[in-house]
Specification:
three-stranded antiparallel sheet; Jelly Rolls; alpha+beta; 276 residues
Length: 276
């Protein structure tokens, strides 16, 4: 997976939609009164602190004054992330749907989690409880560590990975997804696309032979670096690092410059079926 230092908006958009990682060598910096927020003790029983689009802070510990600083910092990053994406791809303006903002103060390396929650394994993103129904998952990251890099690994092109796992997958019957939505297990009804994307996510993470043998490239993001990619199509794994911010956006496929490069269109072509 090629890492691009985007020189123009056209090349940045083409790189993003082509499944690459767009890297900006400088961008978001913590304010002096925010430096003490680089503290894993502020995690409240989860691996990340999150800020919802309606500005509710979740999974944060500490006194009210500290939580307010967290909320302010994360809201500032959310605004920065939107400005960054709209500068890289101006035609996305007005189409971006803001998702959650997260602050990740824990060290990735050595964390004990289940296979499906292990982000050190190559995967594409899919949300079990929050179906996108074909919308793209575009994410902006910032390494806010004082000095240490954040280490990733990227994998093979999406279509090649999908060709391996797709034959093993079958979408749920529509009545099952309707039931999930009715009982609140999902926020909205999953589509066949959501079922297949979740199957690709889970299949890749569970397959230790694939994790060991599939093509991969290392990426290192220095302190202060900002990077942007469609994590629903970029096979990626976060291996090591501490203190990062992340902003998720959803984007309708129709708002892309090249909709045929979306995972929705790729999977529809591979299956010969309408998936949403």
């Amino acid at each position: 997976m090629v890492c691009v230092w985007a020189p123009t908006e056209r090349s940045a958009t083409a790189a993003l939609e082509g499944g690459r990682v767009v890297v900006l060598p400088a961008g978001f910096a913590l304010h002096p009164d925010e430096l003490t927020l680089r503290n894993p003790a502020l995690l409240g029983g989860s691996k990340n602190i999150s800020l919802t689009p309606d500005r509710m802070l979740k999974h944060a510990a500490g006194p009210a004054v500290v939580r307010l600083r967290l909320k302010t910092m994360m809201a500032r990053f959310a605004a920065f992330a939107r400005d960054t994406v709209e500068a890289l791809a101006p035609h996305y303006r007005g189409a971006l749907i803001r998702g959650r903002t997260s602050f990740r103060p824990a060290e990735i390396e050595g964390r004990t989690v289940s296979a499906l929650k292990d982000d050190t394994r190559l995967h594409v993103d899919a949300f079990p409880a929050n179906p996108t129904r074909g919308k793209r998952i575009l994410r902006v990251f910032a390494n806010v560590h004082s000095h240490a890099p954040r280490h990733w690994r990227t994998g093979e092109p999406f279509a090649e990975m999908a060709a391996r796992f797709l034959p093993e997958l079958t979408p749920n019957p529509p009545i099952v997804n309707a039931l999930y939505a009715a009982v609140g297990a999902t926020k909205g009804r999953r589509s066949a696309y959501d079922d297949l994307m979740l199957g690709l996510h889970d299949g890749a993470k569970r397959d230790l032979a694939y994790q060991a043998e599939s093509p991969k490239k290392p990426l290192s993001f220095a302190a202060g670096t900002v990077w942007v990619c469609y994590t629903d199509v970029v096979m990626h794994a976060a291996l090591k690092g501490q203190y990062a911010l992340e902003q998720t956006f959803l984007l309708p496929v129709e708002a892309m410059a090249e909709p045929e490069q979306s995972p929705l269109r790729i999977l529809e072509q591979m299956t010969g079926k309408k998936l949403v």
